[in-house]
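[audit] Reproducing an earlier prediction to check determinism. Same input, same settings, fresh worker. If the C-alpha cells differ from the archived copy the diff job will pick it up downstream; this log only records the rerun itself.
[audit] input (191 residues):
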Amino acid sequence: MVGVRVYTFRMSDNPTSADNQQERLIKIGWITGFVDGEGCFSISFIKQHSRENRRGYTTGYQVSHEFVVTQGSKSIGCLHKLQEFFGVGQVIVNKRYDNHKVHLYRYVVRKREDLLKVIIPFFQTYSLHSSKRHDFQKFVRCLDIIESGKHLTRDGLMATARIIETMNRCKPKHDLIRILRDYTPDIRSKG
C-alpha cells in the first residue's frame, strides 16, 4: 500500500485584521461545504493504443484525474468564486440536450501539479465532512501512485483500479482488473 503524502497549503494572501481572518474562515467553510455537496474527486482510465505518429502507453491505459464541481447556469458565479479562490483550473460548459432546461457548468482542475500543490493541500488542511472525505483520501492515494510512476506498470494500474472501484458511486472495475491482469504486459519484465 502506498503511503499518503501530506502536501502543504499556503494561503494566497495574508489577512492582518481579525475581520479579514474571520471573512477568510467563512469563505473556507463555504468552500468545504459546497464541495462536500457538489464536488467530485475522480480517477478514470482511458484506453490508449499506439497510432501513427504517436506511441501509446505501454500498459495500454492512461490514468486520468480531476477535481470537479458542477452547477447549473444560474449558479455559475459560485464556480467562478472557486476558480478565483484557488487560482487554478477552469470553468467550462457541459452542454445538455436531455430533459434539463439549462446547460451545466463545471469548475475543473485536471493539471496534476495544481492538484498536488493547491487542491490536495487545501482539503488536507480543511477536511470535508461527508462521505466525500473518503473519496478524497482515495484520490490522494491514487495520485501518489501516479506521481511515483507506478501507474505505468500493470500492478500499479491494478492497485489504482482497486482503489477507484470503491470511490464515488462504487463502480465495479472487476472486468478492467481482469483485463489488466490477464492481457496487459508487465513492462517491468522488459529491459
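[audit] rerun output stored. Observation attached for the diff report: DSSP finds six helices and four strands in the chain.
[audit] end
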